[in-house]
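Fold Annotation — chain and its backbone

Encoding — discrete vocabulary of local shapes
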Amino acid sequence: MLAIVCPGQGSQTPGFLAPWLELAAFRERLESLSDVAGLDLVAHGTTSDAETIKDTAVAQPLIVGAGLAAAAVLLPSGPAGTVGVTAGHSVGEITAAAFAGVLSDHDAMVLVRERGAAMAAASARTPTGMSAVLGGDPAEVAAVLERHGLTAANANGAGQTVAAGTLDQLAALAADPPAKARVIALPVAGAFHTHHMAPAVEALGQLAQGFDVSDPGVTLLSNRDGSAVTTGAEVVSRLVQQVSNPVRWDLCMRTMVEQGVTTLIELAPAGTLVGLAKRGMPGVTTVAVKTPDDLVAAQQLISDEAQKA
């Protein structure tokens, strides 16, 4: 079974879209999505610096736009009959929802545009951020985060937890980490998936009522609990609530394994989720579609999976 996964915030790097824009189909799709987002995603993906694309209001539309444009190039006919399951990490859930047919690309970009703006506004109320905690005993990691008043915002599996809270709390964690663990500050501008994002949830809930949604055309997993969501209305409801709820990517990977996923392809800006899959989904063949050079390998895997079906 083939899984297509979509990365979240922090996966973007300066200039990552430069090679993609040499593909006419990719550039055309990205320019169209830029119009909806009200942002020059071409410039942000090529010439904007790290600080600019760290801004939540820029990063989120950039990541979703890149993923949707990459999906259009990789699978121009869509996922039906080819893809067994799809999932996205954090804001990547919007990419996955559009890929699965729940939202149109237009509405996905409207949602991510407003999500990014609302989360940026919520982040501006208090200086907050996120840090990855790599390794350590899970019980001790949980205890240390609690001691510092931090939230385990992302349970990524494979020995990785992402802590979120105020910058002071994160500084205290860096100075007093769990035993045998490394703490790495992430290039994000807020404590996402925590109570700090509550103001954004209300704004997005009102916006989402106006979307025309469809039920997923392919199995779509939720960050809430790793389960498959079968109705479009429930998908959108979860997308809104997930802004202030922890991301359980560990459970998404567990479900993919249980469902028999043998091949996993990560859409651009790729790398993070493939890295987690290599540790958390042993035996699964993976490809990170970082540049157009990776399309040949990804398309070969898609062909191989189609022949098995």
Notes: The first strand starts at residue 2 and ends at 6. Strands lie at 2-6, 85-88, 128-135, 151-157, 160-166, 181-185, 219-220, 263-266, 285-288. The two ends are 8 Å apart (CA to CA). The chain has a mean pLDDT of 95.
